[in-house]
Amino acid sequence: MSISARTLDLAADRSPAHREWLLFARRLARRRTALFGLVVVAWVAIAALGAPWLSAYDPTEQEITNRLKPPGSPDASGRLHPLGTDHLGRDILARIIYGARPALMVGFAAVAISGVLGMLVGLLSGYCGGRVDDVCMRLADIQLAFPFILLAIAVIGVLGPSLPVIIVVIGVSSWVVYARVVRGAVLSLREREFVQAARALGSRDVRILLRHILPNAFTPWLVVATLDMARVIVIESALSFLGLGVQPPTPTWGGMLADGRVYISTAWWLATFPGLAILVTVLGINLFGDGLRDTLDPRLNV
Questions:
Q1: Which structural domain range is residue 217 located in?
Q2: Which segments of the chain does DSSP mark as H helices, in order?
Q3: Residue predicted with more confidence, 123 or 200
Q4: Which positions ≥6 away from 46 have C-beta within 8 Å?
Q5: Is residue 181 part of a domain?
Q6: I need a labelling partner for 240 at 20 to 30 A (CA). Which of 42, 165, 183, 302 fits?
Q7: Is the whole-model pTM more than 0.90?
Q8: pLDDT tens across 66-75, in order?
Q9: Looking at the domain assignment, is residue 120 inside a domain?
Q10: What single string gives the DSSP state of each residue in 109-168?
Q11: What is the domain-level CATH number for residue 107?
Protein backbone atom coordinates (compact mmCIF):
# COMPACT_ATOMS: atom_id res chain seq x y z
CA MET A 1 0.00 0.00 0.00
CA SER A 2 1.35 3.46 -0.90
CA ILE A 3 1.99 6.21 1.61
CA SER A 4 -0.88 8.31 0.30
CA ALA A 5 -3.31 5.42 0.65
CA ARG A 6 -2.21 4.81 4.22
CA THR A 7 -2.66 8.48 4.98
CA LEU A 8 -6.19 8.39 3.63
CA ASP A 9 -6.97 5.30 5.67
CA LEU A 10 -5.68 6.95 8.85
CA ALA A 11 -7.69 10.08 8.10
CA ALA A 12 -10.78 7.95 7.55
CA ASP A 13 -10.20 6.23 10.90
CA ARG A 14 -9.91 9.55 12.67
CA SER A 15 -12.84 11.18 10.92
CA PRO A 16 -15.60 9.79 13.20
CA ALA A 17 -13.86 11.13 16.31
CA HIS A 18 -13.15 14.39 14.50
CA ARG A 19 -16.82 14.72 13.55
CA GLU A 20 -17.85 14.06 17.16
CA TRP A 21 -15.62 16.88 18.40
CA LEU A 22 -16.97 19.23 15.74
CA LEU A 23 -20.55 18.34 16.67
CA PHE A 24 -19.78 18.89 20.34
CA ALA A 25 -18.18 22.28 19.62
CA ARG A 26 -21.17 23.38 17.53
CA ARG A 27 -23.67 22.33 20.18
CA LEU A 28 -21.68 24.10 22.89
CA ALA A 29 -21.34 27.24 20.74
CA ARG A 30 -25.12 27.53 20.59
CA ARG A 31 -25.25 28.07 24.35
CA ARG A 32 -24.23 31.66 24.89
CA THR A 33 -24.21 31.41 28.66
CA ALA A 34 -21.74 28.53 28.46
CA LEU A 35 -19.50 30.51 26.13
CA PHE A 36 -19.67 33.50 28.47
CA GLY A 37 -18.64 31.27 31.37
CA LEU A 38 -15.79 29.81 29.34
CA VAL A 39 -14.54 33.29 28.42
CA VAL A 40 -14.65 34.38 32.08
CA VAL A 41 -12.72 31.30 33.24
CA ALA A 42 -10.20 31.77 30.44
CA TRP A 43 -9.62 35.41 31.39
CA VAL A 44 -9.14 34.52 35.05
CA ALA A 45 -6.67 31.79 34.13
CA ILE A 46 -4.76 34.13 31.80
CA ALA A 47 -4.64 36.79 34.52
CA ALA A 48 -3.29 34.26 37.03
CA LEU A 49 -0.62 32.98 34.65
CA GLY A 50 0.40 36.44 33.42
CA ALA A 51 0.19 38.23 36.77
CA PRO A 52 3.79 39.58 36.67
CA TRP A 53 3.14 41.20 33.28
CA LEU A 54 -0.42 42.41 33.96
CA SER A 55 0.24 44.03 37.33
CA ALA A 56 2.29 47.22 37.66
CA TYR A 57 2.65 46.80 41.44
CA ASP A 58 4.09 44.23 43.82
CA PRO A 59 1.09 42.73 45.67
CA THR A 60 3.05 42.51 48.94
CA GLU A 61 4.75 45.93 48.82
CA GLN A 62 3.54 48.16 51.64
CA GLU A 63 3.40 51.94 51.46
CA ILE A 64 1.71 53.43 54.49
CA THR A 65 1.57 56.92 52.95
CA ASN A 66 -0.84 55.56 50.32
CA ARG A 67 -3.09 53.57 52.68
CA LEU A 68 -6.86 53.48 52.05
CA LYS A 69 -6.70 55.39 48.78
CA PRO A 70 -10.01 55.23 46.85
CA PRO A 71 -10.19 53.74 43.34
CA GLY A 72 -8.43 55.84 40.71
CA SER A 73 -6.10 57.62 43.13
CA PRO A 74 -2.48 58.24 42.07
CA ASP A 75 0.56 57.54 44.22
CA ALA A 76 3.56 59.83 44.82
CA SER A 77 5.10 58.90 41.46
CA GLY A 78 1.88 59.59 39.56
CA ARG A 79 0.92 55.95 38.91
CA LEU A 80 -2.76 55.18 39.34
CA HIS A 81 -4.32 52.60 41.63
CA PRO A 82 -7.38 51.61 39.54
CA LEU A 83 -9.09 49.80 42.44
CA GLY A 84 -7.52 51.74 45.27
CA THR A 85 -5.21 50.57 48.06
CA ASP A 86 -5.75 48.65 51.30
CA HIS A 87 -4.94 49.52 54.90
CA LEU A 88 -1.23 48.87 54.31
CA GLY A 89 -0.99 50.81 51.05
CA ARG A 90 -0.95 47.72 48.81
CA ASP A 91 -2.57 47.90 45.39
CA ILE A 92 -5.95 46.13 45.37
CA LEU A 93 -5.88 45.26 41.66
CA ALA A 94 -2.45 43.62 41.94
CA ARG A 95 -3.58 41.59 44.94
CA ILE A 96 -6.74 40.44 43.15
CA ILE A 97 -4.73 39.34 40.11
CA TYR A 98 -2.20 37.45 42.20
CA GLY A 99 -5.00 36.11 44.42
CA ALA A 100 -6.36 34.19 41.44
CA ARG A 101 -3.31 31.93 41.58
CA PRO A 102 -4.00 30.12 44.88
CA ALA A 103 -7.74 30.00 44.10
CA LEU A 104 -7.25 28.27 40.74
CA MET A 105 -4.40 26.11 42.01
CA VAL A 106 -6.51 24.77 44.87
CA GLY A 107 -9.48 24.36 42.54
CA PHE A 108 -7.65 22.32 39.91
CA ALA A 109 -5.52 20.25 42.31
CA ALA A 110 -8.30 19.43 44.79
CA VAL A 111 -10.72 18.49 42.01
CA ALA A 112 -8.05 16.27 40.44
CA ILE A 113 -7.44 14.45 43.73
CA SER A 114 -11.09 14.00 44.66
CA GLY A 115 -12.11 13.24 41.07
CA VAL A 116 -9.55 10.48 40.54
CA LEU A 117 -10.25 8.96 43.98
CA GLY A 118 -14.00 9.10 43.44
CA MET A 119 -13.66 7.65 39.94
CA LEU A 120 -11.72 4.65 41.23
CA VAL A 121 -14.13 4.01 44.09
CA GLY A 122 -17.17 4.42 41.83
CA LEU A 123 -15.83 2.05 39.18
CA LEU A 124 -14.93 -0.58 41.75
CA SER A 125 -18.17 -0.24 43.69
CA GLY A 126 -20.50 -0.22 40.71
CA TYR A 127 -18.82 -3.01 38.76
CA CYS A 128 -18.10 -5.45 41.59
CA GLY A 129 -21.26 -4.91 43.60
CA GLY A 130 -22.01 -7.06 46.63
CA ARG A 131 -19.83 -6.60 49.68
CA VAL A 132 -17.41 -4.32 47.84
CA ASP A 133 -20.27 -1.97 47.01
CA ASP A 134 -21.56 -2.07 50.58
CA VAL A 135 -18.14 -1.26 52.06
CA CYS A 136 -17.49 1.61 49.63
CA MET A 137 -20.90 3.18 50.16
CA ARG A 138 -20.65 2.87 53.96
CA LEU A 139 -17.30 4.65 53.78
CA ALA A 140 -19.02 7.36 51.75
CA ASP A 141 -21.73 7.66 54.40
CA ILE A 142 -19.09 7.99 57.13
CA GLN A 143 -17.32 10.68 55.11
CA LEU A 144 -20.55 12.63 54.73
CA ALA A 145 -21.22 12.38 58.48
CA PHE A 146 -18.25 14.66 59.25
CA PRO A 147 -18.93 18.41 58.85
CA PHE A 148 -16.32 19.65 56.42
CA ILE A 149 -15.42 22.87 58.24
CA LEU A 150 -14.84 21.05 61.54
CA LEU A 151 -12.76 18.41 59.78
CA ALA A 152 -10.73 21.08 57.99
CA ILE A 153 -10.14 23.03 61.20
CA ALA A 154 -8.98 19.88 63.00
CA VAL A 155 -6.59 18.76 60.25
CA ILE A 156 -5.20 22.22 59.50
CA GLY A 157 -4.82 22.90 63.22
CA VAL A 158 -2.61 19.82 63.55
CA LEU A 159 -0.63 20.11 60.31
CA GLY A 160 -0.61 23.89 60.03
CA PRO A 161 -2.15 26.08 57.30
CA SER A 162 -0.38 25.78 53.96
CA LEU A 163 -1.30 25.35 50.31
CA PRO A 164 -0.50 21.58 50.10
CA VAL A 165 -2.46 20.87 53.29
CA ILE A 166 -5.50 22.77 52.01
CA ILE A 167 -5.40 20.92 48.69
CA VAL A 168 -5.18 17.52 50.37
CA VAL A 169 -7.92 18.30 52.90
CA ILE A 170 -10.38 19.51 50.28
CA GLY A 171 -9.43 16.78 47.81
CA VAL A 172 -9.77 13.90 50.26
CA SER A 173 -13.05 15.28 51.65
CA SER A 174 -14.83 15.69 48.30
CA TRP A 175 -14.58 12.28 46.63
CA VAL A 176 -18.03 11.04 47.65
CA VAL A 177 -20.04 12.91 45.01
CA TYR A 178 -17.79 11.58 42.22
CA ALA A 179 -18.00 8.04 43.56
CA ARG A 180 -21.79 8.08 43.69
CA VAL A 181 -22.20 9.58 40.23
CA VAL A 182 -19.76 7.12 38.65
CA ARG A 183 -21.25 4.20 40.59
CA GLY A 184 -24.73 5.02 39.29
CA ALA A 185 -23.44 5.17 35.72
CA VAL A 186 -21.51 1.90 36.07
CA LEU A 187 -24.51 0.06 37.55
CA SER A 188 -26.41 0.92 34.36
CA LEU A 189 -23.54 0.32 31.95
CA ARG A 190 -22.53 -3.10 33.22
CA GLU A 191 -25.89 -4.52 32.11
CA ARG A 192 -25.70 -3.10 28.60
CA GLU A 193 -25.36 -5.36 25.59
CA PHE A 194 -21.87 -4.27 24.55
CA VAL A 195 -20.51 -5.04 28.02
CA GLN A 196 -22.21 -8.44 28.05
CA ALA A 197 -20.80 -9.15 24.60
CA ALA A 198 -17.28 -8.22 25.69
CA ARG A 199 -17.60 -10.47 28.72
CA ALA A 200 -18.89 -13.32 26.54
CA LEU A 201 -15.88 -12.96 24.23
CA GLY A 202 -13.55 -13.51 27.17
CA SER A 203 -12.46 -9.96 27.93
CA ARG A 204 -11.03 -9.49 31.40
CA ASP A 205 -12.67 -7.24 33.94
CA VAL A 206 -9.87 -4.67 33.79
CA ARG A 207 -10.20 -4.41 30.01
CA ILE A 208 -13.97 -4.08 30.24
CA LEU A 209 -13.66 -1.32 32.82
CA LEU A 210 -11.02 0.65 30.96
CA ARG A 211 -12.16 0.06 27.39
CA HIS A 212 -15.95 -0.02 27.59
CA ILE A 213 -17.25 1.37 30.91
CA LEU A 214 -14.80 4.17 31.76
CA PRO A 215 -15.27 6.15 28.49
CA ASN A 216 -19.05 6.09 28.95
CA ALA A 217 -18.87 7.04 32.63
CA PHE A 218 -16.43 9.87 31.98
CA THR A 219 -19.05 12.34 30.75
CA PRO A 220 -21.04 12.67 34.02
CA TRP A 221 -17.74 12.71 35.92
CA LEU A 222 -16.50 15.63 33.82
CA VAL A 223 -19.66 17.63 34.42
CA VAL A 224 -19.46 17.06 38.19
CA ALA A 225 -15.77 18.04 38.19
CA THR A 226 -16.51 21.29 36.36
CA LEU A 227 -19.28 22.30 38.74
CA ASP A 228 -17.33 21.16 41.80
CA MET A 229 -14.43 23.46 40.97
CA ALA A 230 -16.61 26.48 41.78
CA ARG A 231 -17.46 24.98 45.16
CA VAL A 232 -13.79 24.34 45.91
CA ILE A 233 -12.88 27.96 45.14
CA VAL A 234 -15.57 29.14 47.55
CA ILE A 235 -14.27 26.73 50.21
CA GLU A 236 -10.71 27.97 49.74
CA SER A 237 -11.90 31.57 50.10
CA ALA A 238 -13.86 30.65 53.23
CA LEU A 239 -10.83 28.98 54.81
CA SER A 240 -8.67 31.99 53.96
CA PHE A 241 -11.32 34.28 55.44
CA LEU A 242 -11.13 32.29 58.69
CA GLY A 243 -7.33 32.44 58.71
CA LEU A 244 -6.96 28.73 57.86
CA GLY A 245 -5.93 29.16 54.23
CA VAL A 246 -2.76 30.34 52.58
CA GLN A 247 -1.01 32.60 55.02
CA PRO A 248 0.12 36.21 54.47
CA PRO A 249 1.86 37.85 52.73
CA THR A 250 0.53 35.68 49.86
CA PRO A 251 -2.63 37.46 48.63
CA THR A 252 -5.88 35.47 48.62
CA TRP A 253 -9.40 36.61 47.87
CA GLY A 254 -10.72 35.28 51.17
CA GLY A 255 -7.91 36.95 53.10
CA MET A 256 -8.64 40.26 51.38
CA LEU A 257 -12.29 39.94 52.42
CA ALA A 258 -11.20 39.32 55.99
CA ASP A 259 -9.01 42.44 55.94
CA GLY A 260 -11.69 44.57 54.34
CA ARG A 261 -14.54 43.69 56.69
CA VAL A 262 -13.03 45.98 59.35
CA TYR A 263 -13.12 48.97 56.98
CA ILE A 264 -16.43 48.20 55.28
CA SER A 265 -17.99 51.51 56.43
CA THR A 266 -15.00 53.73 55.58
CA ALA A 267 -13.25 51.94 52.68
CA TRP A 268 -15.85 49.89 50.82
CA TRP A 269 -13.48 48.92 48.00
CA LEU A 270 -11.33 46.70 50.25
CA ALA A 271 -14.03 44.02 50.47
CA THR A 272 -16.14 44.81 47.40
CA PHE A 273 -13.63 44.05 44.65
CA PRO A 274 -12.33 40.73 46.09
CA GLY A 275 -15.96 39.69 46.61
CA LEU A 276 -16.74 40.55 42.99
CA ALA A 277 -13.71 38.50 41.87
CA ILE A 278 -15.06 35.45 43.70
CA LEU A 279 -18.57 36.10 42.37
CA VAL A 280 -17.54 36.46 38.72
CA THR A 281 -15.18 33.48 38.78
CA VAL A 282 -17.67 31.13 40.45
CA LEU A 283 -20.48 32.35 38.19
CA GLY A 284 -18.36 31.74 35.08
CA ILE A 285 -17.47 28.20 36.16
CA ASN A 286 -21.10 27.39 36.99
CA LEU A 287 -22.39 28.74 33.69
CA PHE A 288 -19.80 26.75 31.76
CA GLY A 289 -20.57 23.63 33.79
CA ASP A 290 -24.31 23.96 33.17
CA GLY A 291 -23.72 24.41 29.45
CA LEU A 292 -21.36 21.45 29.38
CA ARG A 293 -23.94 19.28 31.14
CA ASP A 294 -26.71 20.27 28.73
CA THR A 295 -24.45 19.75 25.71
CA LEU A 296 -23.28 16.30 26.74
CA ASP A 297 -26.72 15.06 27.79
CA PRO A 298 -28.10 12.99 24.89
CA ARG A 299 -31.62 13.26 26.27
CA LEU A 300 -31.76 16.96 25.48
CA ASN A 301 -32.53 18.21 21.99
CA VAL A 302 -30.08 21.00 21.11
A1: 40-58+82-296
A2: 3-29, 32-49, 51-54, 92-128, 130-145, 148-159, 163-173, 175-189, 193-200, 205-208, 214-241, 253-260, 269-296
A3: 123
A4: none
A5: yes
A6: 42
A7: no
A8: 889 999 888 8
A9: yes
A10: HHHHHHHHHHHHHHHHHHHH-HHHHHHHHHHHHHHHHS-HHHHHHHHHHHH-S-HHHHHH
A11: 1.10.3720.10
